[in-house]
């Protein structure tokens, strides 16, 4: 029986050290680590961990939301592990999925994690709408109109002046996508 750990953080700037320490303390022989959003179900290191696990092994995760952020994904993973005879433990929540109480707690906490994720998404969308209503600019600031006009002029004359799109981008700092979009709008 092997004890295998899985550690995940959502962004490249976040640190895995706390999770690694807790998984090592628990007795994990091997730890699969990645920096990938939990909202994405396609995670390379999780897939490697799942392939590595054998019947009788135990998958240990520091916190429930490190494994997945949707109830659907959590249930899919746990059902797969259960069908293969692999137990699942969450250290922080003290849930051992091999027990009936652990299964109940897992389901409840999974629903709460998904609810929290949905609340964050709602608040973010509301903040965006409020900012738009106040006339605040959303997203990146576009290039100055004079730079875009210069880029379009060079683009329309590109054959006669022997300029490539890369040359125009370097000369004007206007992104290629902007040049193409504006040229299309103007039928160039």
Description:
The longest helix has 34 residues, at 100-133. The chain has two domains: 3-117, Resolvase, N-terminal catalytic domain (Rossmann fold), CATH 3.40.50; 145-185, no CATH class. 55% of the residues lie in helices and 12% in strands. The chain has helices spanning 17-26, 44-52, 64-67, 71-83, 100-133, 145-156, 158-161, 165-172, 176-185, and strands at 3-9, 30-35, 58-61, 87-90, 95-96. The protein starts with a strand and ends with a helix. Helix 6 (145-156) runs antiparallel to helix 8. The chain is α/β, with parallel strands linked by helices and 188 residues long. A five-stranded mixed sheet has the order 2-1-3-4-5, sandwiched between helices. The radius of gyration is 25 Å and the shape is elongated.
Strand content: 5-15%
Q: What is the name of the CATH topology of the largest domain?
A: Rossmann fold
Averaging pLDDT over every residue, what do you get?
86
Number of helices: 9
Strand order of the largest sheet: 2-1-3-4-5
How many domains? The number is 2
Task: Catalogue the unreliable spans.
Answer: none
CATH superfamily of the largest domain: Resolvase, N-terminal catalytic domain
Instruction: Count the beta strands.
Output: 5
> Biggest sheet, in brief?
5 strands, mixed
Distance between the termini: 67 Å
CATH top level assignment of the largest domain: Alpha Beta
The assigned CATH architecture of the largest domain is 3-Layer(aba) Sandwich
Q: Assign an overall shape.
A: elongated
């Amino acid at each position: 029986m092997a004890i295998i750990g899985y550690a995940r953080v959502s962004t490249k700037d976040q640190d895995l050290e706390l999770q690694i320490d807790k998984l090592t303390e628990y007795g994990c022989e091997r730890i699969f680590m990645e920096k990938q959003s939990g909202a994405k179900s396609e995670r390379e290191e999780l897939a490697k961990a799942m392939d590595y696990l054998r019947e009788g092994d135990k998958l240990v995760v520091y916190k429930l939301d490190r494994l997945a952020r949707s109830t659907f994904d959590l249930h899919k993973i746990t059902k797969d592990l259960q069908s293969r005879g692999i137990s699942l433990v969450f250290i922080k929540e003290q849930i051992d999925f091999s027990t009936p109480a652990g299964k109940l707690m897992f389901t409840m906490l999974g629903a709460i994690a998904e609810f929290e994720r949905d609340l964050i998404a709602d608040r973010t969308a509301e903040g965006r709408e409020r900012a738009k209503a106040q006339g605040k600019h959303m997203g990146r600031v576009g290039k100055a109109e004079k730079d875009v006009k210069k880029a379009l002029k060079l683009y329309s004359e590109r054959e006669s002046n022997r300029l490539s799109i890369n040359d125009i981008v370097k000369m004007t700092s206007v992104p290629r996508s902007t040049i193409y979009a504006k040229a299309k709008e103007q039928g160039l």
